Amino acid sequence: MESSSGNLQVLHALDGAKTQWYHFTAIVIAGMGFFTDAYDLFCISLVTKLLGRIYYHKEGSLKPGSLPPQVSAAVNGVALVGTLAGQLFFGWLGDKLGRKKVYGITLMLMCLCSIASGLSFGSHPKGVMTTLCFFRFWLGFGIGGDYPLSATIMSEYSNKKTRGGFIAAVFAMQGFGILGGGVFAIMIASIFNSRFNAPPYEVDPIKSTAPEADYVWRIVLMVGALPALLTYYWRMKMPETARFTALVAKNAEKAASDMSKILQVELESEQRKIDESTTRSGNSFGLFSKEFCKRHGLHLLGTTSTWFLLDIAFYSQNLFQKDIFSAIGWIPPAKTMNAIQEVARIARAQTLIALCSTVPGYWFTVFLIDKMGRFTIQLIGFTMMTIFMFVLAIPYNYWIHKENNIKFVIIYSLTFFFANFGPNATTFVVPAEIFPARLRATCHGISAASGKLGAIVGAFGFLYLAQSKDPAKADAGYPPGIGVKNSLIVLGVINLLGTLCTFLVPESKGKSLEEMSGENEGDGKSQAHKSQLLIVQKLAVFMYVENYKRSNENDKKAERLTMAGDQLQVLHALDLAKTQWYHFTAIIIAGMGFFTDAYDLFCISLVTKLLGRIYYHIDGSPTPGVLPANVAAAVNGVAFCGTLTGQLFFGWLGDKLGRKKVYGMTLLIMVICSIASGLSFSDDPKAVMITLCFFRFWLGFGIGGDYPLSATIMSEYANKKTRGAFIGAVFAMQGFGILVGGIFAIIVSASFRAKYNVPPYIKDEFRSTPHEADYVWRIILMFGAVPAALTYYWRMKMPETARYTALVAKNAEKAATDMARVMQVDIEADQEKLEQFTEKESNSFGLFTKEFLRRHGLHLLGTTTCWFLLDIAFYSQNLFQKDVFSAIGWIPKANTMSAIEEVFRIARAQTLIALCSTVPGYWFTVALIDRMGRFKIQLMGFTMMTIFMFALAIPYHHWTEKKNRIGFVVMYSLTFFFANFGPNATTFIVPAEIFPARLRSTCHGISAASGKLGAIVGAFGFLYLSQDKHKAEPGYSRGIGVKNTLIILGVVNLLGAL
């Protein structure tokens, strides 16, 4: 039912308005407030160490002065307390006086208090800290007002379609505020350090803190006033929002007049409708009324509880930042730096965290919130945070070992990313959309204040809670706590509670503000109120799979794979089409993605030895440096983890938004991250490896998306007769990707070897690795962006697949038009047939239903288990490559080669393996799959792999003798060949053919992710398992030996055959 307020022309015009210049103006004006908020709130963390050095120096101390715990808590936390108070006060005031009248007050308060904070003078440290805390409280008070006002103003200016993205964009300016604070602090610190070059503290404790350092923290704090001042004029020029003017101030004429100027259209005032709405008791209830409790009580509970729980977890993460920064070498020990250098180092660390984790998370939300919805993003965010928190907590004793710091940093970064691409943004967006206009700013202020209370608990409560149980090990000034491990478990439970509380919040995507709040509705029931009645049902759905009634259709129809889709002329034409040019175009466009995928995934194996030589060289060692076991596992394996995540996420997104819309996104991620991987610069090896791992995770994330999307697109473009070959040809481009990776590495290494002819390691350990070798691995990794970039334009030109457009988007006319252009024939739309098809309940079941389980449950179990078992065996074969390469003389001992020579030899070996075994296996499948069938090829492949694995395992001691190595190589090559001319291709093809169009990409993504999980087990689990029972390699624990491992792999292949 449409509300009468929705019928007000001015509000209808705002809801239906296209994205225009005034939207971006509003984002900038409101967003600059949040830029200032974030700058002012977070810049204090950049200078607290400096304040300790200046005002709390102790003569004769081995360490620089630091703020006492209670002073540090006050300096860092008083602004949070002020923010909480400001959110409540200005939220209420914004509903009483209007958004615009109050909006300038908050900005002036921020300007004045930013300047005053920097002018905190006194003759005694207590005087300076007290004055600073006083002004930072009032600074926080002004910042607090910006939360409800900015969110409310942006929501009331936006249209229905992109409102979530606009509000989130305002909030995302926080990321740039943090980034701007770090960059400015780096500039100021660098200028002062070059002008007043002081010695480190350990050299001269007094001179290490130059008197001029007192200006640094003051300038950093005071400059926060500038962006606020620059925005003040434009805030005062903004008209009051039409929703406040019309629905709260009851002045329809003023609302229409203001919005006519902005929208540049003529609008009627419709004062009579406003007057009618005021007479309805259903639109005059207050905050503390039974009617509010009935309509919005659970919603307010949902927004306050989720924001409270989120901020506990979000702000508690600061507990680990100092450990992380130290672990990756961004911040050396304080005594090795002077005071100003320490500011620069801390600022650089915060800038990098903001650049790599905070800012991307915010903008992922901006771009996807109006596609995925608030509920989905918040649920994903809390769920992922829960998982990562328990991953940190349960094996906590594992993470505290120094060699596992890199993995700890990755998990930490992902937790931070999913906080921002999740509840940290959605908790800000939703309260601005679901409450009535007269209470909107108040309710947003209450929700935000609840969040800030959680921030105080997270930042300070957990600082005490996380202290060691042993009083002797607790930090100075703190009582004993429950320990970090137990604190992390508590935080995991808090995130889990956040996941559950998310079900209290309604979805507002695509609905007008009046629909959500129910303003001026005759029956007094809002969309949000109606959704409130379903909350218990939503929670029940979360706990168990919803039960669907079975239709009365016969069993034969129930087991059809395409379910009446062939009745549409456009789909019938695609199925029967002869092989044409557009088929080959689609193969090349999709296949180049897989070419890039294979290049990017496998090129790292070409340069890991080089990375070890460059970054882990040990003086005097008889062998070149190698990556430590845990670092090698991270560098090689992190892309697999990203791929697994990407397969699930983009598989689901491809069914929700369409294949084409998501297809370009995966390619862009690959291009950006390929380049970024090669730009992993730092003075410290750990920092290089962490940066490399970070970008390779996101590279894998993009690669993962290509699996379900490429397979689904090719299957939906292909005809029935040659569909298997076409999908197989896309997958077979992996072979060329591996091949070209090897060839390009040969060219690059040969060029550098000719230019920089250096001796082998055994003759000169230092000169064997020239400085220029550092460019080799970077060029090889970055080249992966080239084929992807070349394909991007053609991907964007491809029309959406007809099966998605017709069967999922329900637009038969668009499907017919698109395919008529592609196939150059006339095709009827058949909209009537499509509508008949969609009316059948049997064609609308979801993934988590009994109907899906009955029709496709065993199919999904089959595709996931086969791919999982195949990838265990397939990736475990890398265990033996070094033995094979050595046996046939392709790779001599490392100390007999220079660094660049070693890259050349490894690349040559990989190229020959790809040329002789990988590529032929793929193309045998392409040539024969539509003749032999998927089942026969997969069964034959698994059977032959089982035979060869047992042939290697049972007489294993025979193969270890040098004279029998040739036989070993032949067996190894045949195993690899039958993997590719077998299940490695068919496990990719089949999931793209057997599931309904609306679930096809999702199911393929689940199957592929299961395979990638098997790859992780095969590549790393079996690497540890195959270690010798008595003497393991350095960095590894003892295993069950290679022979027993081969027997297990034979059993794995046998299970795959079954």
Question: Explain this structure to me?
Answer:
The protein has 1058 residues and is mainly α. The chain has two domains: 485 residues, Growth Hormone, Chain: A, CATH 1.20.1250; 465 residues, MFS general substrate transporter like domains (Growth Hormone, Chain: A). Helix content is 72%, strand content 0%. Helix 2 packs across helix 7 and helix 30 packs antiparallel against helix 31. The protein starts with 8 loop residues before the first helix and ends with a helix. It catalyses: phosphate(in) + H(+)(in) = phosphate(out) + H(+)(out).
Q: Over all CA atoms, what is the radius of gyration?
A: 31 Å
Mean pLDDT: 79
Q: Give a short account of the largest sheet.
A: none
Distance between the termini: 56 Å
Overall number of structural domains = 2
* Gross geometry: globular
Low-pLDDT segments: 1-6, 522-526, 528-566
Q: Count of DSSP E strands?
A: 0
CATH class categorisation of the largest domain: Mainly Alpha
Helix content: over 70%
Summed up, the helix count is 46
Question: Beta-sheet strand percentage?
Answer: under 5%
Could you tell me the CATH topology label of the largest domain: Growth Hormone, Chain: A
Structural class based on helices, strands and sheet pairing? mainly alpha
Q: Any idea what the CATH superfamily of the largest domain is called?
A: MFS general substrate transporter like domains
CATH architecture of the largest domain: Up-down Bundle
Domain Major facilitator superfamily (MFS) profile: 26-510, 586-1058
Transmembrane segments: 21-47, 67-90, 102-121, 127-145, 166-192, 215-234, 351-369, 375-396, 408-430, 581-607, 627-650, 662-681, 725-752, 775-794, 912-929, 935-954, 966-985, 1005-1025
Catalytic activity: phosphate(in) + H(+)(in) = phosphate(out) + H(+)(out)
Keywords: Membrane, Phosphate transport, Symport, Transmembrane, Transmembrane helix, Transport
